[in-house]
Amino acid sequence: MNIKKHIPNMLTAGNLLSGVMAIVFTLYAGRPDIAMWLIVLSAVFDFFDGMVARLLGVSSPIGKDLDSLADVVSFGLAPATLVFRGLEGLDAGNYLNYGVFIVVAFAALRLAKFNNDTRQSTSFLGLPVPSNALFWIGAAAAIPSFGLSIGASATLITYLVLTLVLSLLMVSELPMFSFKLSKEPLSHKWPQLVLIVVAIGSVVWLGWFGCSVTIIAYLLLSLLPQQKGEKA
């Protein structure tokens, strides 16, 4: 048996399992802090599975489909569950809290669209689902503060609007740069370098909410002229 061809799929499975465990820690263990780290771990697995597949020359349609299935769980359902739990902490039993799960459907639509879009070879069109997840990690961490400052009802409305905005961004045609390795000179990668600096500074200063700030910076940097795109 050729073990080499299974290595990327094992990494993808790590992505999926981390996402599943994030949901379990959110809903049943009452540890959203651990769930956040598990979603970050999913993102690490997701970053490396495609890279390893290309390096080993073992990319396959099955691997691509498996990756999308894992991403729906880890970067759609898991972060939506985090936000849902936070909103339930402010106003338990409010049926509108379930509205945040709309983002899961759009994450699935974004991934299906990506799998059939030949234009995204070096960057992205629309917000990648891992970026969606990172935004919601920070947003989920900020729910208690928002609840204290603007109240439960205003917080719910804010998060439902954010759900709609992020959902539409995922299926939009907005060109967004990626961190895929290439032979371009470093001077052409200044948006990536700026984003790294912003990410480090934001997370050090703001903690988990820095993840949301980083994704906002990613969106703003992507409004500048960019080349066309690859992986969701």
TrEMBL record:
It is a multi-pass membrane protein. The keyword Plastid does not apply. PROSITE patterns: CDP_ALCOHOL_P_TRANSF. The keyword Lipid metabolism applies. It is found in: Endomembrane system. It catalyses: a CDP-1,2-diacyl-sn-glycerol + L-serine = a 1,2-diacyl-sn-glycero-3-phospho-L-serine + CMP + H(+). Its main location: membrane. Its EC number is 2.7.8.8. Keywords: Lipid biosynthesis, Lipid metabolism, Membrane, Phospholipid biosynthesis, Phospholipid metabolism, Transferase, Transmembrane, Transmembrane helix. The chain crosses the membrane at residues 7-28, 34-56, 93-112, 124-144, 150-172, 193-221. Gene3D superfamilies: 1.20.120.1760. Belongs to the CDP-alcohol phosphatidyltransferase class-I family. This is CDP-diacylglycerol--serine O-phosphatidyltransferase. The lineage of its organism: Bacteria, Pseudomonadati, Bacteroidota, Bacteroidia, Bacteroidales.
